[in-house]
Amino acid sequence: MYHYQVFVSQEATFGWLSEVGWVGVDLFFVLSGYLIANGLLGGLVRGQALDLGGFYARRMFRTWPVYWLVLAAYFLAPALMGGKTPPPLWRFLTFTQNWGLGLGCAPARHHPGPAAGAAAQGAGRAVLHCP
Fold first, then answer.
1. Chain centre distance of CA 69
2. Residues near 34 by Cβ (< 8 Å), separated by ≥ 6?
3. Would residue 95 be called left, alpha or beta, if left means φ above 0 and alpha means ψ between -120 and 50 degrees?
4. How far does the chain reach from its first CA to its final CA, in angstroms?
C-alpha cells in the first residue's frame, strides 16, 4: 500500500494504511530472514553439518509447486491476466518476466503476473548466490 502511494498514485489511496504500509514489508523481511536462517542454520545448533543441498531442495519443493500451479493457471486461463497479454512463457521459465519494467507498473502491453516477486527473488539469489 505504501509503495503503491509512492510509485503509482502519489496520494493516500488506502487512507491511513497508505502511510503505515511499509511496516508490513519490513515485517515480511524480518520474518522471512528468521525462517530462512533457521532452516539453513538450525542443523548447526543441533550439531549437524551445514547441508546446503538439503536446504535448497526443501526451499525448491516448498515454493516451486505453487509457482508452477499459478503459472499454469495464467497460461491456461488468460482471462485471469485482466485482458493483458502475458510475457512469453520462456520469460517465466527463466524468472526474467519483470526485467525491463519501470517503477510503479508494468508496460501496458504486458502484465508480469503473480510470479513477479518470485522472479525478483530468483534473479537476486542467482546473482548474489544467496539462499
1. 15
2. none
3. left
4. 27
Q: Give mean pLDDT, residues 112-126.
A: 54
Q: Is residue 48 classed as helix, strand or coil in its secondary structure?
A: coil
CB 103 within 8 A of CB 127: no
* Non-local CB neighbours of 52 within 8 Å, separated by 6+ positions: 40, 131
Per-residue CA distances from 129 to 61, 119, 121, 125 (Å): 19, 15, 11, 5
Q: Count CB-CB contacts under 10 A for residue 21.
A: 16
pTM more than 0.85:
no
Q: Please report which confidence band the pLDDT of residue 122 belongs to, taking 50, 70 and 90 as the band edges.
A: low
∠ CA 114-34-47, nearest 5°, is 130
> Residue ranges of the alpha helices (H) in the chain?
2-4, 17-20, 22-45, 52-76, 89-93, 116-128
With contact defined as beta carbons under 8 Å apart, do 12 and 3 qualify?
Answer: no
Question: What is the rounded distance in angstroms from the CA atom of residue 33 to the CA atom of residue 39?
Answer: 10
